[in-house]
Write a structure and sequence with these properties.
Elements lengths: L1 H22 L4 H19 L12 H24 L30
Length: about 110
């Protein structure tokens, strides 16, 4: 009984590691940027407000909102980077074996 529980736990750990690796296949700098934004938001929230009535003139709240939006954009960038490009179902167009039509070097016949 204990052995099967250990095997199931091990299998879940391996599966979790696989999916975590697949979810973070984009540039690791994106993960670092997300971590820094999380730290910046925490610091902004912890900042001591000199005048509780003014709340930094609303700028701290605005900065937190913009950083949160930036984090969302980083997540979207990671999703795009992790998505394989779509395959063309038709494939490449075949080339015309004849090539373009040749022009008459003499030009059009005179009208008359």
């Amino acid at each position: 009984m204990k052995r099967s529980a250990v095997l199931v736990a091990g299998a879940l750990t391996v599966a979790g590691a696989f999916f975590a690796g697949a979810a973070y296949a984009a540039d690791p700098k994106l993960d670092e940027a997300t971590d820094l934004i999380t730290k910046a938001v925490a610091l902004l929230k912890a900042a001591e407000n000199p005048d509780p009535k003014r709340e930094f003139g609303g700028h701290r709240r605005e900065a937190i909102g913009l950083l949160t939006r930036a984090q969302g954009e980083i997540l979207k960038a990671k999703q795009v980077a992790d998505t394989p490009p779509p395959k063309d179902p038709k494939g490449p167009l075949p080339k015309d074996p004849k090539g373009p039509p040749l022009k008459d070097p003499k030009g059009p016949p005179p009208k008359g």
